Amino acid sequence: MVQTSLVSDLINRLVSVKTQASMVSLLRKEERPPVTTALSAEVKAHVSVLSGHLAENRAGEAIATAMAMIFFEPDHAISCMRRKGVLRASRYEYRGSLIGRIAKAVLGVRDVFDMSPDRIAYLESVEALTCVAGNARTLKKEIEMKVRAHRSRVLKTIFVLINSLFYREWINDHEASSLDSRRYSSEEYAEAASFILHIYASMFPVDGMSLAHVDTDAAGKNAIVYERLLVAAIRLAKFREAEQLIDGLPYRADRKGGEVTISSIDPDVERAVRLGFIQRRTETFIRQFHLQEADQPISIRTLIDTGFDRGSFDNLLEIKDHPVRRFVLLMPAIPVVFDAWFTTDELFRDEIQMLMELDIDHFGTFDDLVFPITDRISSLDVLKTQRYFNFISCAYQRRLADIQDAVEREELTLTSTLLAISHEAMVEHMQLILGNEDKAREVIELLKMVPGDGHLDLQYRPFVDVGGYYMIAPHVVAVSNLVRNTIVANGFRSAAIGSKDLMIHSVTDALRSAGFEVESDLKAKIAGQKLELDIVARRDDALILLECKNAYHPVSVHETRNSWDHIRKAGKQLDIRQDIFADPANQSKLFERLGWKENSKCVVHTGIVIANRVFHGASLNGHPIRQAHELINVLTSGCITAIKGPEEESLSFWIGPNFQTADLITYLGPKSIASDQLAALDALSCRYSIGSRELVFSSYVLDMVKFDKEMRERYKP
Questions:
Q1: I need a labelling partner for 688 at 20 to 30 A (CA). Which of 161, 191, 415, 525 fits?
Q2: What is the pLDDT of residue 645?
């Protein structure tokens, strides 16, 4: 309960006048007091009050609260609302009309509130997006209706279907309609299954009976039921994604007729995001290609196939008819069995491939990818856990593949491939794999999903706790980037980086090798301010100030927002440092502190260096955002590979045969190889039907042939 204050007093007076016109009249006469720390705290405290009014659909109180908060401190109030996601219709059963009324009311008297342009753009976006909220609400009710109609079978059935998609290495068709199940990736389907579990948990208790039964007609006459259910959940997820984009990132929503388009305010931001994902896929493909070419250990799937072909696994599974016809695993939980495959530190091909995925955002050696996640658990322990479920999944799927009758095979897939493991058995199995009970219990805790929790995601917490038992889609466990996801889900990124950030170390070494004087992790007090500089470097008359942010490549809007928040923080830090070191006197103090020789005034150049590739090429407040591996390449080789064409060749974007300071300055400027990459992207609209309206995401796609041609024309061999 918020105590009586300036904000609550104004809210009470606004509510008492009843009409919106009277509220506006009252505000026009109100004298705005100076902003204080106490007033800012009051404004922030009323965010939860506003949320409560919206949840209860109290229109007068909600409009009055929003207007009072924004009246006293417009930019701060709207910033708090965005940070907490208070104006998201999905928070209130997709009721958007009241949120739209609030946005419209505030925009109608924007002269009273003196809001900055980006806050106005945000409220315009909120109003535009709420036009789709009613359709999203209808879509959610359709999902609830299907869940209710198939309550006893829906969860187990969709989990089995998702597990099969991951095993089959499903390839989607990006060109298909948003109503076509072929449009979406296995990851999108996993998110949809997680969301359906969330909806189920909001309607019914999740216990052992919730996943006890499966619809054996799910591959036949009822296939369309689950297909439509999952596609509806994916489309609804796109609405929530739009809300997150306008709340947490520099994106806006614009309405035109029955369409609402989501786009980045600065087109380079969305270009940089798309380019980052393209580069990530390219790096993954390159690593997979090299792994296929190399003489590497066999995969788990090959191990299973070989074992069945030789008859070694003939007794691994047997058919049981009660309570339903299904395959049952007959692998005794004894050390001699588990030691054969699961406890060894020798890696299978699957695990090497997983480590290569981690290596894309990594800056040490390949051996460094086996590292502690917690005091007890290492990345290798997580990989061994995945190995266990990969083995079981491949064994079931291979045994099923040997069944000739397609209908019987489909029914047994539905009844057999989702695992139900008691907590006691899970502890016993994990203990055999990892060596001790404490490790076993900790791994289970890290991977456990409690359906009542707020955020549910099968690829982050795949052990679904249904009260004494875990329901597990084994191939989702097997192929998810579980080391990375465990670190992200549990907030262990700092521990994974360790006491010495290898990214900063690698960039520092590259600068030094290019002839720069360089210092990292510098703490100094200059111009009366305590400064922490990630990297400061000097060569010729250039002073380079770099802020480094080491986050994994994001796989969702939420994670992308986290990366952007890191970048925004770096931008604010560089704003201050750029101002300080524009003064030659402060430069002299810095050089003295570093033990560098006095120099004539240097030109200050800044940069935000990121570990992942998302946002690479964009800029913030004039500070270029550059990916660390790309920056290192600029300093050490200056080459880019022409990917397509009659033959591959290495192209140089250095000015001359050797690195010059100007090469780095150009790279940090608006006409760099990074900006060339962004310019090569072509506009693309991704459309999703939400009832009678369409949600359109304005994005970009890279034509690799065109890009290769432009690079060959622009840069020399």
A1: 161
A2: 46
Last-in-domain residue among 497, 531, 555: 497
Q: What span, in angstroms and rounded, lies between the C-alpha atoms of 269 and 276?
A: 11
Q: What's the Cα-to-Cα distance from 657 to each of 204, 387, 636, 708, rounded to whole Å?
A: 68, 48, 12, 22
Reference 422, options 293, 333, 485; nearest CA is 333
CA 8 to each of CA 79, 460, 509, 543: distance values in angstroms, whole numbers, following the listed order: 19, 41, 56, 51
Two structure tokens written together for 630: 């790309």
Structure tokens at 336: 């001699």
Longest dimension (CA), the chain: 88
Amino acid identity for residue 242 in this structure: A
* 175: phi then psi, degrees, rounded to nearest 5: -85, -10
Q: Which residues of 646-683 are buried (b: 16+ CB within 10 A; e: fewer)?
A: eeeeebebbeeeebbbebbbbbbeeebbbbbbbebbee
8 A C-beta contact, residue 609 and residue 546: yes
CA distances for 394 relative to 4, 124, 617, 628, angstroms? 63, 51, 42, 38
Instruction: Identify the weakest region by mean pLDDT among 123-127, 169-173, 368-372, 504-508.
Output: 368-372
Only one residue has tokens 């491949």, namely 394
Give me the percent of the chain exceeding a pLDDT of 90. 76
Which has the closest alpha carbon to 494: 416, 552, 414? 552
Contacts of 709 (CB under 8 A, 6+ apart): 645
The tokens for 368 are: 């460094």
Range of the domain at 587: 502-680
Which amino acid belongs to residue 202?
A: S
Q: Could you tell me which of 394, 137, 96, 466 has the C-alpha nearest to residue 255?
A: 96
Q: Pick from 82, 115, 148: which residue ends a domain?
A: 115
Mean pLDDT of the chain: 92
The answer to whether the Cα torsion of 432, 436, 440, 443 is positive or negative is negative
Pairwise CA distance, residues 45 & 58, whole Å: 18
C-beta separation of 645 from 584 below 8 A: no
User: Is 239's pLDDT higher than 90?
Assistant: yes
Q: Note whether 528 and 601 are same-domain residues.
A: yes
> How many domains does the chain divide into?
4
Question: Does residue 40 have a pLDDT over 80?
Answer: yes
18 pLDDT higher than 80 = no
Do residues 567 and 549 touch, judged by C-beta distance below 8 A? yes
Instruction: Tell me how far apart the alpha carbons of residues 113 and 404 are, in angstroms, rounded to a whole number.
Output: 72
Same domain, 191 and 332: no
pLDDT digits 0-9 by tens, 616-631: 999 999 999 999 999 9
Structure-token pair, residue 22: 């009277």
Per-residue pLDDT at 515: 96
Within this chain, do residues 657 and 574 fall inside the same structural domain, yes or no?
yes
Co-location of 668 and 576 in the same domain: yes
- Residue 241 corresponds to which tokens in the numbers above? 């994604």
Residues 543 and 488 grouped into a single domain: no
465 and 529 both lie in a single domain: no
Strand order in the sheet with 529-539: 517-526, 529-539, 542-549, 603-610, 623-627, 619-620
How far apart CA 395 and CA 692 sit, in angstroms, is 45
3-state secondary structure 323-370: CCCEEEECCCCCHHHHHHHCCCCCCCHHHHHHHHHHHCCCCCCHHHHC
362 vs 356: CA distance, rounded Å: 9
Give the DSSP H/E element, type plus range, for residue 155. helix 154-167
Tell me what pLDDT residue 599 has: 80
Q: Which helix (H) or strand (E) holds 399?
A: helix 379-401
